[in-house]
Amino acid sequence: MDQLGTLAETFFNWGSMRSAISDLLTTGVPNTLILAVTSAVIGTVLGLLLAVAGIARTRWLRWPARVYTDVFRGLPAAVTILLIGVGLAPQGMEIWGPDPYPLGVLALSLIAAAYFGEIFRSGIQSVEAGQFEAARALGFSYAAAMRLIILPLGVRRVLPAWVNQLISLIKDSSLIYFLGLTADQRDLFRIGQDSAATTGNESALVLAGLFYLLLTVPLTHLVNVIDRRLRHGRGAPAAPSPSEARPSPEPAPASEGAARV
User: Fold this and answer.
1) CA gap 181, 73 in Å, rounded
2) CB 112 within 8 A of CB 39
3) Other CB atoms within 10 A of residue 87 CB
4) What is the rounded CA–CA span in Å between residue 126 and residue 243?
5) Which residue has the higher pLDDT, 245 or 198?
6) In degrees rounded to 5, what are phi and psi of residue 57?
7) Is there a contact between 55 and 121 (Cβ–Cβ < 8 Å)?
């Protein structure tokens, strides 16, 4: 019982949670969402360019896209964030001052672009070749057929994978604390960690984890909804009720006399 009480006091102390909840709500959640959403938007644009370059006929576009994808998918996210955040810090000082936030967004965007690019490439290549041939037969140029026909079809098919990667991006945003964010730039993880270091109690960090769950679990269920819609279609007819599914009795055969009449 003493051990259970110690564990409860260490991880579920309401006083420690209450002292951190205000910062988590007003600073941690907005900064985490800003990091994740901004990086997702930039990464999506770069990922589409990488996907198109990765399936291009000319090797001068295809090879650099493949090398970029292999490098940024192969490196741990923490290594990439440190390389960019520390290596480009002098250039960042000249452009926007000592604020490390933009470099964190840049690092997350470059990481996301590699994963999004591979997701979009698989979606584009899953589109039937007849779709492209039909577009060309209707007079579309190569660029117009890709932009208006192939890309929309391919992206629609990989929406669940895109949302899954967005979930990973929300969690990876916690690694930006390596760059030394200021008090008003801290994300959920950094606020929970600071509170745990100050109080010697892990309850605030547990609360930060709960906030991450509140952000990611609904997205996980959204993935399932999107996947179900894509597989079965929004306008799929509902299954008939048992009474409707029961076959109607066949009409009795006419009597022999009636048949002769």
Assistant:
1) 25
2) yes
3) 11
4) 41
5) 198
6) -75, -30
7) yes
Record the pTM.
0.80
pLDDT digits (tens, 9 = 90+) for 73-108: 999 999 999 999 888 888 877 787 777 888 999 999
Nearest to 183 by CA among 171, 195, 173: 195
Rounded-to-integer distance, Cα 184 and Cα 23, Å: 9
Which top CATH class is 25-236? mainly alpha
User: The tokens 């991006």 sit on which residue?
Assistant: 169
Domain ranges within the chain, ordered by starting residue:
25-236
Residue 147 clears pLDDT 90, i.e. is over it: no
The confidence score (pLDDT) of residue 236 equals 44
Angle (nearest 5°) at CA 175 between 51 and 115: 10
189, pLDDT greater than 80 = yes
Going by C-alpha positions, the residue among 28, 23, 2, 3 that lies closest to residue 199 is 23
